[in-house]
Amino acid sequence: MEYTLGTIFDLDAQRIATIKFYKTEKEFILLIPNEIVPSLPSEIFFIANNSNEKNNLPCMLSLSSQVSTEKPAPEGNQYIKGIQIFGTSSSNYRNDVRISLDMDVKVYSSDSTEEKDAKVKNISARGILLISHEIWKKGNLLSFNLPLSNENIPLVAEIVNIIPIGTKNLIGYGCQLSNLPEKTESIIRQFIFHEQLQHRKCIK
Description:
Layout: E1 4-9, E2 15-23, E3 28-33, E4 43-48, E5 59-64, E6 77-87, E7 98-109, E8 115-124, E9 127-132, E10 141-148, E11 151-164, E12 171-177, H1 182-203
Antiparallel strand pairs: 1-2, 1-4, 2-3, 3-6, 4-5, 5-6, 7-8, 7-10, 8-9, 9-12, 10-11, 11-12
């Protein structure tokens, strides 16, 4: 049986643990250390850590200890079944939960000292999509403050993908967020997970 690494978070975006898992056609089977099991919430956010894009499924799972497997769990662990109840799959470097935004920001590019206008269209804890009339190059670093949760979060994003939009001469810039301070990443995750939960309530 081949396991993959994943990370589980509670619904307040607090990291619980890095765990092993495998996925069947209908569910996730999580291999959880025994000492963690008693404190597990009934619903968690789950993100696969591996680089195999097909298996990166950022989502929300409902947990159950009723698991049928061919082999018993390794000593010191137990299997927990996770049923996906909300989430989307990802097919690029941003293997993480993302949400749509429509937020104006002032941006500085690494190849200019002039402040430029842009708009944030979506964000995850690892990446962000900006649109702008400005022409920037792949590899440029974009610096800006993002207002989240009553705070202005300073971010630096590297352009890794350029997307011609064809509307009013706008260009989309897929950017990667890297080397984020732990506090900054936590704020972004909390905001994203909160918005995901609110959206889930709206579609119930």
